[in-house]
Design goal:
Distance between the termini: 41 Å
CATH architecture: 3-Layer(aba) Sandwich
CATH topology: Rossmann fold
CATH superfamily: P-loop containing nucleotide triphosphate hydrolases
Shape: globular
Radius of gyration: 18 Å
Strand content: 5-15%
Number of domains: 1
Amino acid sequence: MLPNLVVIGAQKCGTSALHYYLSLHPEVSMSDPKEVNFFIRPQEWKRGIEWYESHFTEDAKVRGESSPNYTNHPRSKGVPRRMHSVVPDAKLILLVRDPLERIVSAYIHNAARGREKRDLSSAISHARSTYVVRSRYHMQVERFLKFYPASSLLVIEQGELLEHRPEALARVFRFLEVDDSFWSPKYERLRHETKNKLRLHRDVRKRLEQDVAEVRVFSSEKLGVTRNLWRLKEDADALRELTGKPFEGWSL
């Protein structure tokens, strides 16, 4: 049985929380593991559709998965085309947050695990910096809209899920055409993974704070950073136009 819901991203925007919240709804069945990544990883794609179907065994009204790596173009190319060839009628959900805050969160995640040795300015100075392209939400989602109608896409800001959870979840449930009055006491608790993540060492945190200050205050002296921040601003404005959301609290 194939899914009819895919949470396509974005990374570090609350996809784990939403996946969990959705799994509690009696009309929704979410995959385990959360990130199937069928449409990006060659080894998974080669396993075929039957392997993908095996992750959705329950006969629920809504069956879904959440793979934020689906919105990592150009590193992961061709995802929308492959997805549409398998689940053309699926509904898509994109979670977003302040683009710069998402970058900082991803940087912390990688630095804490020793995967990132560069300062933040260097990490976001390249034209195809994965930190930057993952925060260009409109650029990512417009590739899906070449295959899926806009009516099949729902964009939710992370802040809505954190600060206005009942309203945000009701909107998600209406989008999925399931009972939007459903509520679980477990929705009262904040669901995230930070408690299980490594703490930043003092020197990493200090370096990060210095890097963030440099990006925010002195980016005009760094052409690569300035170029990418401008691209983020243009992309954020395009997302505002697409969704009709003002994203007033964003830094760009």
